[in-house]
Amino acid sequence: MSLDVMLTIPGARIPVEEDRIFIREDGQQKSLTRAEWDARYPGRAPVTVHDGRETTDEVFTANITHNLGEMARQAGLYGVLWEPETCGIQTAVGFAGSGLAHA
Question: Residue 74 region, left (φ>0) first, then alpha (ψ -120 to 50), else beta?
């Protein structure tokens, strides 16, 4: 089970690096620049990702990987965290306004 967290600012136009390099480190997905890749893995070619976008409104992204499902279920937060649309939550403002953010 993992949880993708993306924070956005609607209308923001943050440049997207043309080719992105992703690695797994310490249980997380991290993005490296080509210079960082070359310093870590000299002489090796990375797999790169380009989704065709020139800008994004994402200001923070993270992937939380751990066996959080059972803990969330026991805390009564499984639906809110992994299926927020089924709880009527569409945005972070909706989550904060639900009262569950302060539980």
Answer: alpha
